[in-house]
Design brief:
- Helices cover about 65% and strands about 15% of the residues.
- The protein starts with 15 loop residues before the first helix and ends with a helix.
- It is built from three helices and four strands, in the order αββαββα.
Length: about 190
């Protein structure tokens, strides 16, 4: 038995308007979640990049400190080299001056340089030649001069001359020479 003239329509639990509304909400929610996950990912990458940059900065600062230490070491080495070079030049000049002091009639067999003195071994024809030609210039340079003479087989005299500069005079001379060097560098 039929009570209706039309055939019944199929009814859905969710109407088409509700389906449209739910699909818009679903799309909107999925876009929000995707945006949220994108921002979380970007925040994670930013934090990771920040850590990498901090680590690289620490490495660069450590490298800079290492380079500063190396520069300081090299500067000290340069100063040491200059000091040694200056001392070598002074020593070379002193040795040249020493051999210029020795007259032709006196023969040196050995010369020993000490920190604060000089020891000479040699042969002289007699004491007078030694005293006037070598000992006088040595006395003008050194504070204390001692000489010993021994007869040589050929009739000449072997001598040992020990000459010393007092420590306080040596420090005064070094200070004066340092000031003179500084003054000459200022003039340049």
């Amino acid at each position: 038995m039929k009570y209706s003239y039309i055939s019944p329509r199929k009814k859905n639990v969710i109407s088409s308007d509700l389906q449209l509304l739910l699909s818009f909400f679903g799309i909107t929610l999925s876009m929000l979640f995707l945006t949220y996950f994108f921002l979380v990912f970007k925040d994670y990458r930013f934090a990771q990049n920040t850590q990498e940059i901090i680590q690289k900065r620490a490495e660069v600062e450590a490298g800079i400190e290492n380079m500063k230490k190396q520069i300081t070491f090299i500067e000290k080495e340069v100063l040491l080299y200059e000091r040694v070079n200056t001392k070598n030049t002074v020593l070379k000049d002193s040795i040249a001056n020493l051999f210029d002091l020795v007259p032709q009639r006196i023969t040196l067999s050995e010369a020993s340089l000490l920190k604060n003195g000089l020891i000479l071994h040699g042969i002289t024809p007699n004491k007078d030649v030694y005293n006037f030609m070598l000992q006088a210039p040595l006395r003008s340079i050194f504070n204390r001069t001692y000489s010993s003479f021994y007869p040589a087989p050929n009739g000449w005299l072997k001598f040992v001359s020990t000459n010393y500069i007092d420590e306080d005079d040596m420090e005064t001379n070094v200070t004066k020479s340092d000031k003179e060097e500084a003054g000459s560098k200022d003039e340049d």
